[in-house]
User: Fold this.
Amino acid sequence: MYAAGDVRVETVPDARLVEPTDALVAVTRAAICGSDLWPYKTMEQTEDGRRMGHEFIGVVEAVGADVRTVKSGDLVVAPFVWSDGTCVFCREGLQTSCLHGGRYGFDGVDGGQGEAVRVPQADGTLVALPVGRDDPLMPSLLTLTDVMATGQHAALSAEVGPGKTVAVVGDGAVGLCGVIAARRLRAERIILLGRHPDRIAVAKEFGATDVVSERGDEAVERVRDLTDGLGAHSVLECVGLEQSIVTALSIVRPGGAVGRVGVPQEQTIPEALPTFMDNVRIAGGPAPARAYVEELLPDVLEGRIEPGRVFDRVGLLDDVPDGYRAMNEREAIKVMIEF
Assistant:
């Protein structure tokens, strides 16, 4: 990406092993993320461009001398950040804060929207999959790199549990996966705040019991009406814009919790005094996807959840620029790239 709206497919030097802890992965599936749309809307012009993409599955082509957990020929899923798996934060399940980790597309590491990626800290990052590269479950497995794990993180941060009323703010791929996560955690009622008919239909099939299509104060009033004036026990904020955060913090009940996973576009959290006075717990952040893969993988493999249904457009590498446009213009929920 060279500037807002300027995504190009280019030939670059082949990815290669650099460190003995690296793995070289030939990408078989990748995705465009909603967070990729923020630079697509706002990035300033740059001469060098930025490698894009952080959600991918692929086949290991080579490994460094110190790699022990994956080998050449393995099909692997790559969480959206790389981590060593051994530092104090990784051991606590917070791989996004790994002391020796990082992000794809930065510091000389390839982006995931390309033919091959050098994956640093392969042992702590990659997870081998027990299926073939063309398995029908591939779309759902691809969501474990980010959006399904992020939906899970939102639900856990919002303390979703049996018998609770949950509100999900946002009907993008993360919000839809948040619905799956809330149902998986046995929420009694799941209210989706969204206004796109195609996404609402998917959310209902995923387990949403109610839909609020109003926005702003009207949305807050509607959720209050649905909850006897009390608000939701758990609120999943899956957008990151100021209005969505205000809405999330306005519909949580006293003593409730808000899980924030939408990348915030503001530096401050609104509604500070009301949430303080109501003892509202606010948690969340970038999901440590690596911590959730083993938990969610059996549910995908056994068909208990189908998060891959958030992909409603599939293209090839040359189609990536149009994929960005389609997601930005709400023509697609989420785009999968096949290699």
Observations:
- The longest helix spans residues 289-301.
- The chain has a mean pLDDT of 97.
- DSSP finds twelve helices and 15 strands in the chain.
